[in-house]
Amino acid sequence: MTLTGSTVLITGGTGSFGNRVARFLMSKSPAEIRIYSRDEKKQAEMSRALPDLTYVIGDVRDVARLTQAMRGVDYVFHAAALKQVPACEDYPGEAMKTNAIGSMNVCEVAVAAGVRTVVALSTDKAVKPINAMGISKAMMEKIVTAQNLMPGNTVFACVRYGNVMNSRGSVIPLFREWIRRDQPIQVTVPQMTRFLLTLDQSVELVSRALTEARGGEIFVRKAPACTVIDLANVMRRKYSNAGDDHPLQIVGTRPGEKLHEVLVNEYEIERATEDPTYITIHPEYRRPAVQLERPLGYEYTSANTEQITDEQRLSDMLDEAGEMEDYV
Predict the structure, then answer these.
(1) Is 125 an active-site residue?
(2) Which of these, 48, 77, 252, 324, is most buried using a 10 Å CB contact count?
(3) CA angle, 230 as apex, 225 and 233 as ends, to 5°?
(4) Which of 42, 83, 125, 222 is catalytic?
(5) The model's pTM
(6) Which CATH number fits domain 7-162+198-221: 3.40.30.10, 3.40.1280.10, 3.20.20.10, 3.40.50.720?
């Protein structure tokens, strides 16, 4: 498969992932990359940095606008979502409209437009969801991965992430902002763990899905993790003039927040395959011939993955992740 000469649409294209995957796709010589989002301000700012892309104002809730935007498209990366947990807790209906119904719209329009492959972005919060954002993304996964039960030529798959470093809404930019303002770093629960995945690694995962999907899979990239207290300590020593004297404030978990991220649950692991870097969850309607040898009840979580406790390594990962673009 090649992207050369193809037309690609990225929904939610002005977000952290959309920006990074657009840069990746530009190196593959596509004929056109369309950035589809509802935020004209971010589109204007992004277009100054990446002027050769096509920018389309629209919402995944709007079928007619999606139909216009998807004409002639070969590949769709579906990243549009409401992903702030507190906001989705306050407005669960809005989360459902964008994350679930909007995703169904993307799928239906893609089939009608003759799109070759749709790769949708999901989150650890969709696994055993305890909040509105996770519930709506779990429905998104079900909607997308069920598409290939029906006859058709469009291939549908999902990728599922834990915490992506420096993505919008993640904890690292938030900690940096509190440090910059000389405000206390608010730590929820010190023992809370989070995966550490860079944006570039998230793009690699999407590339794998685009290349290997047969239809209905969920692709997961393995990643190390750390506790939030270790992350806060490294960041205040690295970025604050006060170092260890920069104040920390323990505030407890937010509504709908998990102590540890789960990327593959004990039911999914029974129909998964893996290599040293990736786990592929196969759909119920196409289980793999070989089952992973895992203890009964095993889940892949931020608590049982590789734990980063070395301060220098964590500092190096922050350098590698870079800083979040202003408009994402």
Answers:
(1) yes
(2) 77
(3) 145
(4) 125
(5) 0.92
(6) 3.40.50.720
